[in-house]
């Protein structure tokens, strides 16, 4: 009986920590999204740096990388984001050449580490550029994406917890269920559609339905994709920076997928 009580108390404490951290995240994120300017630049920079440290810490060998590697990879993302669009292809190519060449000069950095750095640079550059394009086009699109993502995520958690019976993908995420996934998809799609209907005047109803339906699927795929990365490297969370939530990448895994996917929708449909 005591063990059951202790487990319930521990679960309650974890939920309290999770809620407090979530509220602090909201307080820190809302001002940049509302006021923009240097605040939004600071938010993007924080995600690039914190996410970069978390992702690049996934290296498998025991020996430490040369101290210059992580700062060089993070700096490469900033250079790409701030550079002229005409230079992007060449700069990405140079980044690939540099990080694939480093193993030639040191045995503390392997070829697979080079590919990890290239993946980080490419992915975070894409995230930053897609976000800025969406934000500069219409700030309401950003809120639409956030609502679709986290409404789906929250509903999937509670639907899975109380209604879940059939496992979604035991190999990658044993706790996720089909009931949770479908519940999250429905709730996220409906809530984001309602938001778009009242707050976004540059989308047709058909575009709202399409975007809401797509984002609530791609967001869940992003969650599973990052879970697969963690399982591959044998970790539970990317870091413990955000108590109750893990690391920055644990919190934005679905969101970054959705920013990239919505930017494609934005370009294709010319919203």
Secondary structure blueprint with pairings:
Elements: H1 2-35, H2 37-56, H3 69-82, H4 88-101, H5 111-137, H6 139-163, E1 167-169, E2 173-177, H7 178-199, H8 205-233, H9 248-269
Antiparallel strand pairs: 1-2
Helix pairs in contact: 1-2, 2-3, 2-5, 3-5, 4-5, 5-6, 5-9, 6-7, 6-8, 6-9, 7-8, 8-9
What does this molecule look like?
The protein is mostly helical and 271 residues long. It folds into three domains: 1-35; 37-137, no CATH class; 138-271, no CATH class. Helices cover 76% and strands 3% of the residues. It has a two-stranded antiparallel sheet with strand order 1-2. Helix 6 (139-163) packs across helix 8.
Describe the structure concisely for a colleague:
By secondary structure, this protein is mainly alpha-helical. The protein is built from nine helices and two strands, in the order H-H-H-H-H-H-E-E-H-H-H.
